[in-house]
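Consider a protein example.
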Amino acid sequence: MTLGEIHGVLQDRGLLVAASGPLAPGVVVTGVAYDSRRVGPGDVFVALRGQHADGTTFVSQAIAQGAVAVVAQEPAPAGSASPWLQVTDARLALAFAAAAVHGHPSHRMQVVGITGTNGKTTTAYLVCSILEAAGLRCGLLGTVVYRIGAEEREATRTTPEASDVQALLSEMVRHGCAACVMEVSSHALALNRVDGMRFAAAVFTNLTRDHLDFHADMEDYFQAKRRLFQLLPRENPAIINADDPRAASLLATAGRAVTYGIACAADVMPAELSYSLRGLDFVATTPRGPVAVRSSLVGRPNVYNILAAVATGVALDLPTAAIERGIAALDAVPGRFQVVSSGADDVTAVVDYAHTDDALRNLLETARPLSTGRVITVFGCGGDRDRTKRPLMGAVAGRLSDAIYITSDNPRGEDPTRIIEEIQRGITHDTRRSGEQHIEAIVDRQEAIDTAIAAAHPGDLVLIAGKGHEKFQTIGARTLPFDDVEVARAALARRRARTEEQ
């Protein structure tokens, strides 16, 4: 692509305000970058306005590294010797320019976008497994991992920046992927990271309280989620959770809706549900006939995730047999009700990513009927994030747990003791399950997990919530290795060793 063609893309989109400097239309553009440290020769540098810095500050560094032009909302400074394209919105310019430079990869594969507060990751894994079972090589972009062909890379963001999304999709096309499933976060939608993409289908899981450190309020949060369905071509299916209070609003936005649910009438629904630690076994009724579901995933929240995946498969006209095989083939999702104990243990330990009050409630309500003993909860809340959910999570833990160990999550720049105190404010006489409920605050997360597992009685279920698949803990300015799964397994091994000595 040439610089003249980039100029045309921005002009056609109504983004271009002015062009200045020695604009040579025939100059070849090899990429689009927003991070001056990652600029290479032939790139166009898009100067974004961030929360903490203005991209125009780094223009000289980008040019020194080979940028052939600058795109920015600010006009070119006096005497600028580099081509400068002033635009009305630098984030939209980044999205549309990147899509053009990479040859619009979303038009060359089926891209399924999944948004919502809870369930995005598991639903994405399920839909990806179904597409693979249907014979379509499928890429994956999400909270846990980016999968490009046979390669997996650790995810840095749920939804990367627009130019990174387009580059990853382009790689998938080169590796023979005919489809991609991606989690689409509210941040990404609000910051235009998926503008310029074509979605084959969009999925809405649910909307509950989260990210109010970024969004002004719940309505603002919902409007960000709604953008995915506004970007979806009207002839393509919108898969919507009919049980969510926001369903009616989304149905009014969608051109072609396919609904799923348990409580409300929907296109895709379950029949004769049964729950156990071994998984789920039910029949999903669909407009195309029954789909037999056998899954090792556990609990009511995963019924919703499976129904969303079934509805997506039906909406994309995938064979029923492929939908059934794809669901059955997914053994587990990292950090999502991940059972880390074994048959050699006398307690059950589960690691889960639940980090909102609604997700924690779902986790505890799933665990209760599966436990033959008490339910013990280990959790904390992240620092420098929405503080309002802390007492709400405390209240949920108080109502639904038999014992609680409040600890650190990723405290980041906050005092972890203060975060714990804010959680404890939600655990009152009215929200406590019983007067005999054990409640203990232990700042060190490893110590909290060790203590909870050591104190458990045979038959108890220990839930370790909040960090799920994460392999690190951020304390102050340090990011330290920390894996709930490994820590819990080590604590279980010590418990087994003590039992054998007795």
Observations:
- The chain has 15 helices and 25 strands.
- The first strand starts at residue 16 and ends at 20.
- The CA atoms of residues 284 and 471 lie 36 Å apart.
